[in-house]
Specification:
Layout: E1 9-11, E2 14-16, E3 21-22, H1 39-46, E4 53-60, H2 77-92, E5 97-102, E6 120-121, E7 130-133, E8 136-139, E9 144-145, H3 151-167, E10 172-176, H4 182-187, H5 202-205, H6 207-216, E11 225-229, H7 243-256, E12 261-264, H8 281-286
Parallel strand pairs: 3-4, 4-5, 5-10, 6-9, 10-11, 11-12
Antiparallel strand pairs: 1-2, 7-8
Helix pairs in contact: 1-2, 3-6
The chain binds flavin mononucleotide.
């Protein structure tokens, strides 16, 4: 009997020839001059083109969204050209590839930020977390809160990045809303203490996610878009008083957007899959 793993799977209008999906994995190999992906990225991803689907390493939508040394971006012309080499190499081998759209929020360091500015976050609360910079591991820098008036600019950054992904030839995009980065910081009440329309109630904490998804799904058909959450992970010093309620609300937003798939980190990022007693991944998936 043929193993199910090697049978096709329908994802919107795409047929994945098998059910092996390559997880997004940061490699820190972008050209330091402009955070540009280049020939080694094309080789690396083309080597993995027999997967049903590849999700790329997390890729910053804007210089402000960068949190680690030598991660690639999708905000400059050189980056689009670099990623085009990657998508062409994967397609030439018969593969499919989605780009993971990333903004790290407070998980950054001033040495990685434009003009040495403080990183941005929903609220000015520093994470007890580390990143890696030119000199090695370093504590992340204290962030400043995004002004309400800056949200349209942030949405514009997501819009441009998604257009760039399409121009670079990606088959779709995955929105990174996991692992304690910006969108996760907005979702959870441990990091989101805002008093404007983006903080407080679940409707407010999931608003930025919904607005970003609305922007992205105007560029890619919703079935070519996925979203990633890590409801029960504390990675990057993230916490929530009621993750079941928070992520049921977040998943409801993803459902409203009609997305192609939901991607969950089931346990602690890169560690145990043991869950707290109140956690029920199956219930969340069924939402
Ligand atoms: C070195 C490394 C880099 C990673 N980079 C990303 C990333 O860019 N985006 C993402 O969503 N997850 C990233 N992850 C998380 C993995 O995709 C995966 O969810 C995690 O390793 C848990 O799976 P595992 O328990 O099988 O290792 C990374 C993990 C590791 C170890």
């Amino acid at each position: 009997m043929q193993a199910k793993l090697f049978t096709p799977l329908t994802l919107g209008d795409l047929t994945l020839p098998n059910r092996v999906v390559m997880a997004p994995l940061t490699r820190n190999r972008a050209n330091p001059d402009g955070d540009v992906p280049y020939a080694i990225h094309a080789e690396y991803y083309a080597q993995r083109a027999s997967a049903g689907l590849i999700i790329t390493e997390a890729t910053q939508i804007t210089p402000e969204g960068k949190g680690y040394i030598q991660t690639p971006g999708i905000h400059s012309g050189a980056q689009v050209a670099g990623w085009r080499q990657v998508t062409q190499a994967v397609h030439a081998k018969g593969g499919r590839i989605f780009l993971q759209l990333w903004h790290v929020g407070r998980i950054s360091h001033v040495s990685l930020q434009p003009d040495g500015q403080a990183p941005v976050a929903p609220s000015p609360i520093a994470a007890e977390a580390q990143t890696f910079v030119a000199s090695g591991f370093a504590d992340v820098s204290p962030p400043r809160a995004l002004e309400t008036a800056e949200i349209p600019r942030l949405l514009e950054d997501y819009r441009k990045a998604t257009e760039n992904a399409r121009a670079a030839g990606f088959d779709g995009v995955e929105l990174h809303a996991a692992n304690g980065y910006l969108l996760d910081q907005f979702l959870r009440d441990g990091t989101n203490k805002r008093t404007d329309a983006y903080g407080g109630s679940l409707e407010n904490r999931t608003r930025l996610l919904a607005e970003v998804l609305a922007v992205i799904t105007k560029i890619y058909p919703p079935k070519r878009v996925g979203v990633r959450f890590s409801p029960f992970s504390g990675f990057n010093d993230i916490a929530d008083s009621d993750p079941m309620a928070t992520f049921a609300a977040a998943i409801a937003r993803a459902n409203e957007a009609g997305l192609g798939y939901l991607h969950l980190v089931e346990g602690e990022m890169g560690q145990s899959r043991d869950l707290p007693p109140e956690a029920d991944i199956a219930k969340l998936r069924a939402a």
